[in-house]
Amino acid sequence: xxxxxxxxxxxxxxxxxxxxxxxxxxxxxxxxxxxxxxxxxxxxxxxxxxxxxxxxxxxxxxxxxxxxxxxxxxxxxxxxxxxxxxxxxxxxxxxxxxxxxxxxxxxxxxxxxxxxxxxxxxxxxxxxxxxxxxxxxxxxxxxxxxxxxxxxxxxxxxxxxxxxxxxxxxxxxxxxxxxxxxxxxxxxxxxxxxxxxxxxxxxxxxxxxxxxxxxxxxxxxxxxxxxxxxxxxxxxxxxxxxxxxxxxxxxxxxxxxxxxxxxxxxxxxxxxxxxxxxxxxxxxxxxxxxxxxxxxxxxxxxxxxxxxxxxxxxxxxxxxxxxxxxxxxxxxxxxxxxxxxxxxxxxxxxxxxxxxxxxxxxxxxxxxxxxxxxxxxxxxxxxxxxxxxxxxxxxxxxxxxxxxxxxxxxxxxxxxxxxxxxxxxxxxxxxxxxxxxxxxxxxxxxxxxxxxxxxxxxxxxxxxxxxxxxxxxxxxxxxxxxxxxxxxxxxxxxxxxxxxxxxxxxxxxxxxxxxxxxxxxxxxxxxxxxxxxxxxxxxxxxxxxxxxxxxxxxxxxxxxxxxxxxxxxxxxxxxxxxxxxxxxxxxxxxxxxxxxxxxxxxxxxxxxxxxxxxxxxxxxxxxxxxxxxxxxxxxxxxxxxxxxxxxxxxxxxxxxxxxxxxxxxxxxxxxxxxxxxxxxxxxxxxxxxxxxxxxxxxxxxxxxxxxxxxxxxxxxxxxxxxxxxxxxxxxxxxxxxxxxxxxxxxxxxxxxxxxxxxxxxxxxxxxxxxxxxxxxxxxxxxxxxxxxxxxxxxxxxxxxxxxxxxxxxxxxxxxxxxx
Length: 819
Description:
By secondary structure, this protein is mainly beta. The radius of gyration is 33 Å and the shape is flat.
């Protein structure tokens, strides 16, 4: 298992596994060294691209872009080898890659449907070389397919696909001592062994590899089927690749955390009562264990038991063979859980990790034993007898009662402990009582609904109307976002921003953006609630429109109740979501401080919003006055005859704590909580400097920055906001594209590179550099339509003039967020 344990946290990240999990003494063997299957490094390296990326990113903190193709590896070879290797010199060799390739098996594998590998052949001196392969296809330095044989150095230069090390006579700086090329499976080939042969003069380098099938079956074994509860952390299934927040002050000993100390640390962790080791192996249809299958671990109840890591690749672990190890922990309570392990094609952010993998699953049942809820033995405080002396009692006056006279009191369990009481029974919805009188806001947005503080039958819909109810400064855009309980879902949004006014808002050259619904997640603006927004708006695209202060309706949103129970709808403000929160937008694209109304939710008193009830609310209670605890709730002494008679009198009735029972008469609503930080994959490289990290741009969802190139500085159309103008140079890019970015681009319409110093109607010039970043202001707001009509969110380079086409291109990416 070597140092794999640090790796597994990132992709935030033919030896078979026996049917039974290996014995502990087997696990304790020194598998932190070179696996038995690994051959010496020799003079070549063959690395599947996805595994190279995962290992470079997760464990070595190397530039993972080097793993994208032969050309990028060749260009970054010296720095990559120094980062991964141990000698840290400027002469890369195969030994530098051994810490990485030791995880890749011997020989390394290529998946038959999606395998792509980078191959490095280390040579003594520059010169032409022949590269040949059986059971594969060679791609040259530039990724051009060459078939089964390629004469490197015979095509006239690097621009034609030759590696510089195949061309003698170049300057010394052009060489790095390695011929770099790529290898893919031969569509007409077969599963099994293959060999790449590199011949240069009298020197021949043989590089073996194996073609394996895609995942066909998965097997999971655990050392122990039973663990005890008591740990925080671990995997949170609310989103596919996040970790549960730690508890207990973050003490590692109290957390479900994958250890970083190698196999011995893993075994020691697995020997504790709250943890056990789980191992998953994946085989193709021939029964061959494969490397590079990425396995997602999920628990059907992470609050009882869960895995330490959400996504783990199969690796050459040494003694344990080709497998993906994990740690399974008991968390807050007792019961039975089922762990499901599923192969996946993509990470949670959309990065392709095994693109052609079919989805195969296995389950592992586990039992979690709840820690016993031991009674707390309390020594009651003396209650002074009326009229008695207040001086400190003597020893004879405070004689300790015998054991039979000492009452025991069962403590109120701590929330989240194994002794947690069952959830409260919903009680009738009270009339809302504002926590404070809100002063009138000079600029305000108000929501209203017939469902507010009322019941909505499950399976039926209700509508929320949004209106601007106060305005003191001109605005030319409105952005909105709401959040709601998971038993509610989005149906539709209908904009009324084209008037007439009144009763509606009327924007000239109006545009609007439909909302996007986000699944419940701890990292949402309202934690664990569904979100609806992501840049939803209506605004004006007129470059001559100076804004207005109209009051009126702008959108109606229809939602549906899907399950019985109390619910809340929250109008999300910019305080909760700085990028897409509800606000009026000024003509200079700044956010106008906007009051949100009404504050009628008892679950979220500090937010604008309201409560509702999906289904039939329970009948009203006779009174909402808190009822004193029933006598049956008063702890009784251990013995029927144990009433103490010693003075002073002992009072056995405990005073209820503030959280011992739900507030009588209030609905059993989900408690608002502060969003917890979500574990994100490691990687801070932004090669093209567009404000979107390379890892994000390589993902498969444009809404999180993906489906873009980390080498293209203009394909993420985020612009300085507030708009750059002579009176205000403060605009910056924030990594998220909203309607404010579009309005800022509209402000530059009419400027051009042909007349860089000619101001448009707003006094802005294409050729200025107001923020002093060395880039013309016009270029920052200038793009062209992209070349791929299936990717309208991805613009092309500046056209030399800012016009309405730029704003239309940008609208297609509103809601895309790289933060």
